[in-house]
Design goal:
By secondary structure, this protein is an alpha+beta fold. It has three helices and ten strands.
Length: about 120
């Protein structure tokens, strides 16, 4: 078993079974979510961002991004703009949040911004 990158060793009748090392993203808990400690490696369009998170992870909603933005001292994303999973009321636009001022933005889905994946706890 693995939680937050730490392995648990299982002993069964004098035999030790080492779990297979699985590439588990490092995360912290914040705003009632598990939040990856690092951005994904590149900027993505909104369409790409929706499918960019590893299995079991997702883009945060615009409200979740607001909470994360208010906790940047723990998360370390000052001055970047992040996609949310929320579509906009405008065609071909989606919501993002700028982390230097926590302002909600409406951007073209073809623009490229950062992604920080979350999962429910």
């Amino acid at each position: 078993m693995s939680k937050n990158g730490q392995k648990e060793i299982i002993t069964i009748q004098n035999s030790t079974i080492q779990p297979i090392q699985v590439n588990v993203p490092e995360y912290i808990s914040c705003c009632g979510l598990d939040v990856m400690t690092k951005d994904l490696l590149t900027k993505y369009t909104w369409y790409q961002a929706l499918g960019a998170c590893p299995e079991g992870w997702r883009l945060p909603t615009i409200r979740e991004l607001e909470c994360l933005c208010n906790n940047t001292k723990y998360l370390g994303y000052i001055g970047k703009q992040y996609w949310s999973s929320d579509d906009s009321y405008k065609d071909n636009y989606a919501k993002s949040r700028t982390f230097n001022d926590c302002k909600e933005e409406v951007e073209k889905k073809g623009d490229r911004y950062f992604c920080r994946c979350v999962r429910n706890r």
